Amino acid sequence: MRLLVLGGTVFLSRAVAAEAVARGHEVTCAARGRSGSAPDGARLVSVDRSEPLPPDLGDYDAVVDVARLPSWVRRAVAAYPSAHWVFVSTVNVYADDATPGGTPATLPLVEPMEEDGDLETDPEAYGRMKVACERIVLDGAASAMVIRPGLIVGPGDPTGRFTYWPRRLAAGGEVLAPGDPADAMQVADVRDLAAWAVTACEQRTTGVYDGVGEPMPLSQLLEQCSQGVESEVTWTWVDQEFLKAQEVEPWMGPGAIPLWLPRPEYDGLPAHDVRPSLDAGLTIRPLAETTRDTLAWLEATPDAKVTGIDLDREKELLGAWHARTPG
Fold first, then answer.
1. pLDDT tens digits for range 70-122
2. Beta strand residue intervals within 84-167, DSSP E
3. Domain range for residue 72?
4. Number of domains in the chain
């Protein structure tokens, strides 16, 4: 199979290219090349997607695209309408973040934004542009599959959201666990999504699916993560009212505790029904394996991004929590 990966140098798109090379496919990565390198065995072609794709880029059986700008996707689909497309979207296309168990068949979408938006001035444009991109692919390609990932984790993560936990758990000791232990959470290993995308290209799988892992209580998810590191930890669960009062940020950022989301308004965001995706070929590795491999990548990559509170801030919060709730 001749595969064109629009991107191919960072995280998921790079993992797709690496998986396809490992399976013996002929892979071309089209990117500026400023954010990283293509995996060994793939051809990197320097492309600025604000311009039309080069006419001599080649012919391809399948295309994988992770773009968010409608103009980029529109030009690419016009250039390769006969290829099978796998478009990587996002769960941010959904207008309902509160209802657990949602699927692409049950959840409403936000209104599409057909023109390119500016995320710095309008962060909500991300999901709306992705809706428009999905429609361009589904309407314009000969056959297509759309994957809507939630939180993607694993080695190479450029966001630093999940990487907080392997680093923190490896340090051991008393760990501040955020929110309610029963709060649902789900993550997807980047390598599992990449393998699924390549298989979809090989089999010309069609349809729209969520790229998510098994939803489970946050307590279970963190416990499984702790099994991937060689350290002893004890959990102290701190409720969201206390965290808000202490001005701890949710989800990501230097003052955040990742994987914590305000409830109930985000009860549905990390609790999608994964069964349709499993039926469509997604396979999920154990979280302990993901955590172990992410920790190994962190140790080998000194400049890897890790977001979230530091140990001193955590100790301060735990001290205040214990003082507030003696015993």
1. 999 999 999 999 999 999 999 999 999 999 999 999 999 999 999 999 998 99
2. 84-88, 143-149, 152-153
3. 2-324
4. 1
Token representation of residue 130? 């992705």
Indicate yes or no: pTM above 0.85.
yes
CATH code for position 102: 3.40.50.720
b/e 204-234 (16+ beta carbons within 10 angstroms → b): bbbebbbbbbebbebbebbbbbbebbeeebe
Q: What pLDDT, in 10s, does the model give residues 238-277?
A: 999 999 999 999 999 999 999 999 999 999 999 999 999 9
Helix (H, G, I), strand (E, B) or coil at 219: helix
Amino acid 96 reads D
Sequence-ordered strand ranges (E) for the chain: 2-6, 26-31, 43-46, 62-65, 84-88, 143-149, 152-153, 173-178, 184-185, 188-189, 207-211, 216-217, 233-238, 249-250, 256-257
Strand order in the sheet with 26-31: 43-46, 26-31, 2-6, 62-65, 84-88, 143-149, 207-211
